Amino acid sequence: MLKYILKRVGIMLLTLLVIITMTFFIIRAVPGDPLSSMARNLPEQVKLNFYAKYGLDEPLFTQYIKFLKNLIFHLDLGESLVYPGRTVAESIGKFSPVSARLGGQAIFAGFTVGIGFGILAAFKRNKWPDYVVMFLAILGVSVPSFVAASLLQYQFTVKYMVLPTTGWGKASHTILPTIALCFGSIATYARYMRANVLDVLHQDYILTAKAKGVSNFALVWRHVIRNAILPAITILGPQIAGIFVGSFVIERIFSIPGFGFNYVSAIQNRDFSMILGQTIFFASLYIFALLIVDLLYGVVDPRIRISGKR
């Protein structure tokens, strides 16, 4: 297992280096920069001083090498070009907890409710609970999250006025965004879980367990869920990482000061340092989440660990 983890970590670092390199050169290939508009009416010497301060007057490859050195040896993601004095690390530390709370609630609700609906639909196949769950699943996949968010705002903030429309700070501010974010996740997990449970129920070891007199609860918990949940865990990994940037539109609609909101602002302002630093943060989180998912496979299904040793 240790050898496997070290190998995966090496691949993760190589992947991260490729992402950093591609992002660095792509964002600088876009015409213009934040300083050109900010220093438009300033004297030429002052403009040159601005460019020299942030190293934008140096060759592109030299800027790239300097950035890598600061990142590797000092873990320095740089300073914002639009807001002098604000570092990228400070922005991540300020805005990511907001997105983490909102996305964490959405993932927990989507995973638990979706898994429960999928199991219910499988055991009640071709009955009204199955039809209701599948209807909700199709609806959840078809309706975009921003449409669901707009409908929720109209129903609960305009028509009935029971929840706040926008803002952040209270628990009530998280209810509608969480529902809008987890609606699609519930549908996805329900569909996957229903199909996998139906497949597991026709396996020989299920018939053997029933013949031995295993209770329904033990049958579902020990034999059905553990074997049917692996594909759902595969989806869970990217979603854990996506909670920070997957809610761009939702955070905009509800005016939530989260990571996605700040990331979009950095792109609009062409804040090179902020875009690159936040991309590195998201990419690292995404890659690390995939590693955790691979390790969870061995926890959920011991057969994976046995085959790995062999």
Automatic annotation (TrEMBL):
Pfam family, one: BPD_transp_1_N
Membrane-traversing stretches: 12-30, 102-123, 132-154, 174-192, 228-250, 280-300
Subcellular compartments: Cell membrane
ABC transmembrane type-1 domain residues: 96-297
Similarity field: Belongs to the binding-protein-dependent transport system permease family.
Gene for this chain: oppB
CC per GO annotation: plasma membrane
The entry's keywords: Cell membrane, Membrane, Transmembrane, Transmembrane helix, Transport
Origin organism lineage: Bacteria, Fusobacteriati, Fusobacteriota, Fusobacteriia, Fusobacteriales
PANTHER family noted in UniProt: INNER MEMBRANE ABC TRANSPORTER, OLIGOPEPTIDE TRANSPORT SYSTEM PERMEASE PROTEIN OPPB
Membrane topology recorded in Swiss-Prot or TrEMBL: Multi-pass membrane protein
InterPro entries documented for this protein: BPD_transp_1_N, MetI-like, MetI-like_sf
Protein name: Peptide ABC transporter permease
